[in-house]
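We both want to read discrete structure tokens more fluently, so let's practise on a single case. Would you write everything just below, so we can both look at the same thing?
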Amino acid sequence: MSARIAAALFMSHVPAIGVASDLGKTEEPYWKPLFDGMQPARDWIAANPPDVVILVYNDHGNAFSLQMIPTFALGMAPFYEPADEGWGPRPVPTVEGHPALSAHIAQSVIPAGFDLTLVNEMTVDHGLTVPLTMMFDKPDAWPCKVVPLAVNVVQHPTPSGRRCLELGKALRTAVETFDDDIIVQIWGTGGMSHQLQGARAGLINAEFDNRFMDDMINDPEVLAEVPPVEYLREAGSEGIELVMWLIARGSMSDLAGGGSPGEVHRLYHVPASNTAVGQLVLENGTVTA
């Protein structure tokens, strides 16, 4: 038996969501609608637990800085500690890695033309830990292993949507040739529309966001051709994070002749802090070719 990708998940990684959870504010009127809206995804993952999550996110100047920003960085370590982002590390469990799967991904994906940076030691910030909180709440230990895949969406030029979608396809090949009977999910995180600075600070574009989710489900190849400047124009300076969703979407079997993905859950919520929050759960379809 070999590994298989059972589902792709997509979600924002707004730091304030983690703060609300950490400080016990989830039942407050501002936060309760969001956390209630995420509950179906939590119920689903409790019934369909992964052994490993390949978690696509961006670092926010903690593991990397403007002195060194890899386009794609793959975590190779057995453990990753939560980063201190200026107010102490989040009170969440240490993230357990899967070095054997990481090594196999590197051996498969790099010869296929994707020049990953291999990182043997790093901390992980809210970009990675907030999605875990969104799905698993506040456990004593995270219930699965995690392979971090950090993407540069901070310093331009950023990778294109096409490059991200194709990397997802390469990740699917890597996982499906890993000789271990494990269930893998790939999570694409970041976004949705938001801008944190300048005259457009607080920008929310619900029309763009919802059309993006429609196309993420039905036509990711169209999204792969969206230029970075369109994300900046329509979704704000931080909206470019949405290209990371395409890595997870590229891993799904319909793009390799399989069946269409099944939509399990979809959430769109405004606002959380000054950000639009999206969450989408897609199960892999049955391979038909």
Q: What stands out?
A: The longest strand covers residues 262-272. The chain is about 35% helix and 20% strand.
